[in-house]
Write a structure and sequence with these properties.
By secondary structure, this protein is mainly α. It has one domain. About 70% of the residues lie in helices and about 0% in strands. The chain has 12 helices and no strands. It has helices at about 1-25, 25-50, 65-85, 90-95, 100-105, 110-115, 120-135, 140-165, 175-185, 200-205, 210-225, 225-250. Helix 3 (about 65-85) crosses helix 8 (about 140-165) and helix 3 (about 65-85) crosses helix 11. The longest helix has 27 residues, at about 140-165. The protein is globular. About 40% of the residues are buried.
């Protein structure tokens, strides 16, 4: 079993490597995409600088916590979209019958399909996350912890995208649900949870688990609440298993498009 996992990991790594090499054929476009993503993210932090020049606390967050919130949001988003970009196109892949190219391969269908494409600009998000760590004044140990939290959050975001995308095995218009769900995870990620009340806040820690992916890591980085780390780690494990289960359950319903396509 360990050999199978090792082989699948190697295949996924090579898939990401070749997808990245394709993106780097045009070096100017490659680095421009990264740079502009960093600048795009930086433009949004300006509004928080202005706001915190007026008051010292927003939704229970200090300015340092806001920087870390943006860092975690960028890091998790960047990790997920760079390594698993096709997870966000899973509905389209299923609806258009494009899983055929992955079904004929002797490797894991889900991992092969979601790692076959990278998003160059997502590297800009990853770099931006570390820039926020620098301005927040994190030490080496906390930056390492930030990295681990970003990876855990990125895997969780990917699993959520797979869950939403897998609904297309049952519902033809599930791509709209997937797009909205993934959008919610991104849109709520950069606002302090203290500004949300009642049912909205409950949703952010349950049905739309932004709280687990983005808010709890802030408490870990600033207050070193170890129990929260185990909570988000166990949540990641659970949702990854559920994503695999739902995808392969739905795969039994998949209808081939009879498209003749192959991956190189």
């Amino acid at each position: 079993m360990l050999t199978a996992v090792k082989n699948q990991g190697r295949v996924s790594f090579l898939s990401i490597k070749y997808a990245l090499m394709q993106e780097m054929l045009n070096r100017v476009t490659f680095f421009t995409n990264i740079l502009f993503m960093i600048l795009n993210n930086a433009s949004f932090i300006i509004q928080w600088i202005v706001l915190y020049s007026i008051q010292n606390n927003v939704g229970g967050y200090t300015f340092k916590q806001i920087l870390l919130l943006w860092g975690i949001a960028a890091g998790t988003y960047g990790f997920s979209h760079f390594f698993f970009e096709n997870a966000y196109d899973l509905s389209q892949i299923i609806n258009e019958g494009k899983l055929d190219a992955y079904l004929v391969q002797p490797k894991n269908v889900l991992l092969s399909s979601i790692t076959s494409k990278v998003k160059t600009s997502a590297l800009g998000d990853i770099f931006y996350g570390y820039i926020m760590c620098f301005f927040a004044g994190l030490g080496v140990v906390d930056i390492l912890l930030f990295t681990i939290l970003s990876i855990i959050g990125g895997i969780t975001l990917t699993a959520i995208a797979v869950l939403l995308g897998s609904l297309s095995f049952w519902f033809q218009k599930a791509d709209m649900i997937a797009e909205s769900g993934n959008g919610f995870m991104t849109n709520f990620a950069t606002y302090p949870d203290g500004i949300f009340k009642g049912i909205v806040k409950v949703l952010l820690f349950t049905l739309i688990p932004v709280g687990i992916v983005n808010y709890l890591p802030i408490s870990i980085l600033t207050e070193h609440k170890v129990e929260f780390f185990f909570l988000i780690f166990l949540f990641m494990i659970a949702i990854v298993f559920f994503a695999f289960f739902l995808f392969y359950r739905g795969l039994k319903r998949y209808s081939s498009s009879n498209l003749m396509s192959m991956r190189i």
